[in-house]
Every structure is written in structure tokens, then in C-alpha cells.
Amino acid sequence: VRRLRAPLRVTWDWEWPPIARPPEPGARRAGSELRGAIGAEIVEARVLLLEVGHPDATELAGGALAAALAGFCGTLSLALDPETAAALGGSRPWEALGAEEVWLDVTPAGGAPLPGSLRRWPHVRLYLTAANVAEAAAALVGAVEGGARAVSLPNLPLFGETLRAARVLAPRPGHLREFAGLVAPALAARPEVELRVHHYGLWEELRARGLRPHGEEAPGHGGCQAGSALAYVDPAGVLYPCASLPLPIERVGPGALRRAWAGAELAALREEIARLPEACAGCPHGATCRGGCRGWAHFLSRGWDATGPDCVR
Ligand code: SF4
User: Ligand 1, atom 4: nearest CA belongs to which residue?
Assistant: First the structure.
């Protein structure tokens, strides 16, 4: 994986994720020309798995995303925020795109309840923060009891609001334990629900309660894949190793992905990520945890020798 010529999996946020809004002051969204160039580069680099986050309802229904991704042969998934899903009503423009999964982001946002029409969405995901533990647990339990078939718990992206308030919003071990304790009974009652957990500390807490996240059977995670298997493209068209590792590489244009993946900057980054942090020396779980989220650890400590805030020890 560390010798790939381009990322296997790309997340391209068409609009800033709701959890990261408002974005940084002055942050702009790419215009249609740049979005076309981003889509063309993703197609050209033969990305296998693409998630497009938060496309505008009008542009999605109007074919702008389909036009940007003309010729894409990989597996496509979409992440929608509730306003977009509600605005689309009964129309399902992703069917024309061939999207395999459409995730509804049910992260609690300012107390606004999820519209009734969206309460039985099959694929849901949410971001846990230190400030939303009880609400997020209630949203997940509601989705599972409402019939969701798959649940995804990714790491928080480090953009906009989450970047500005990173130390306040990063869930600490007590938050992870509380959340896991609140959601475990509902998940245990529906073992057929596919549980995808990228957040390492949550993964450990859920496993400790007898749950088995999808694709992550013992002995555990393979470690951080930022800048090797993974890439992130923000709504302004800037390429990053991951949404949780805010080190900008370059603006996406022709050849950007292969150039970045062959370049010295990412080679050095991959070496740092592959090295077990000093703080983990002697930890019996180091071989599987690999220091937790390297992006958050680097952002909070300004170096590579600390654990991520998802370390539960
Ligand atoms: S920086 Fe690494 S560990 Fe953190 S979310 Fe990205 S891929 Fe995962």
C-alpha cells in the first residue's frame, strides 16, 4: 500500500461537511470548471473507491456531479446532509450515477430533529464530538431501531469549525466510553447491522462490549493510511493526505494525484506515519493501534511522537 502510485480511496467533499461549518474565513468552494478538473483527475488516476460528500441537491439532481465524474469506473458512494436529502424528496438522482451507498449524516446539529421522512435511511453516519455524546448516541440508537442496515463512525475532519475548536471538540476517553455504553445495547440487539468504525478509540470501546465492527476482525486496524491508500479533496479543490490530517499538498489539476503520490513530501509523511510514536513505546496494543489517529495527533502536538486523542489508555 505504501508504494501505491495513486490513492485507492478518495473522499471529495463537494461542500464542507456540516460538522465543519462554517468553514475557515475566506474559504471558497470550487467553481464548476475546477470541479470538472477534480473529477477528471479522479477518473484519470483510476481511484477505486470514491466518496463524494455533501453535493448540493440542485447540482446533484441537475447532473453536475455526473458530468464531473464522466468515465469513473470505481465504486462511488455519497454522503448527504439531511437538508439535501429532504430537498431531494422522493427523487433519487444517485441511481443514475450508479452510487452503491448513500450515507445520511445524522450528526446532531443544533438540536434540529431529523425530518420524519429521513428516519429510516439505510446507511447512516455520524461524527462524535466531546460536545454531542448523548445526542449522538440517541441519533445512532434511533437510526438502528428505525431499521438502518449500516452505521459508520468516522474520525472528525479537521476543517472549519472543528479545526478552530479542535481541543474542545476532540472526544476524550471518557466520552468514548460513555457513547459506547449508550449505543452498545441497540447495536447488540441488531447484530446484522454493518458497523464501520474508523475512530480507533471507539472501535476498542465497542469491541470491549462484544461488538465486532465490519472488516476489522482481530487483530485490529492496519494503521493510518493517510497519504498512502487515502486522500482527501476539500471543497476548494485542495488535496490532503486525509480529512483529519490538515497538511495541504496542492490544488487538484491534471496529474496531481500521481505527482503527489510519487513525490518526496508524501514519502516522508508515510515514513513518519509508519513509525510507532515514542509515546506508545512498550504499549502492548501498539502493533494494532499504531498510535491512533496520526492526523489529530500531529495537529494537536505539532509532531509525530504523541498518540492521537483516540488513545483510551
Ligand atoms: S489521519 Fe490516519 S488515522 Fe486519522 S482519520 Fe486519517 S487515515 Fe485515519
Answer: 293
Mutation to probe ligand 1, out of 49, 163, 224 (largest number of atoms < 8 A from CB): 224
d(CA 148, CA 119): 9
pLDDT digits 0-9 by tens, 38-49: 999 999 999 999
How far, in Å, from the CA of 73 to the mean position of ligand 1?
25
> Interhelix angle for 173-189 vs 200-208, to 10°?
50
**Cross-strand pairs, 231:** 10
Task: Give distance in angstroms: CA of 228 to centre of ligand 1.
Answer: 11
Q: Which atom of ligand 1 is nearest to the CA of 292?
A: 3
DSSP states along 113-175 = PPPGGGTT-SEEE----TT-HHHHHHHHHHHHHTT-SEEEEPPPP-SHHHHHTHHHHSPPHHH
Query: What cell was used for 305?
Result: 511522537
Torsion-angle region of 24 (φ positive above 0: left; ψ -120 to 50: alpha; else: beta)? beta
Sequence-distant (6+) residues with CB within 8 A of 191 are none
Separation CA 253–CA 35 (nearest Å) = 10
Distances (CA, A) of 31 to 34, 37, 59, 85: 5, 10, 12, 22
Pocket probe mutation, ligand 1, options 51, 221, 245, 273, max atoms within 8 Å of Cβ: 245
Handedness of CA 232, 226, 229, 80 (dihedral sign): negative
pLDDT per residue over 218-274, tens digit each? 444 568 999 999 999 999 999 999 999 999 999 999 999 999 999 999 999 999 999
pLDDT tens readout for residues 82-140: 999 999 988 999 999 999 999 999 999 766 778 888 888 999 999 999 999 999 999 99
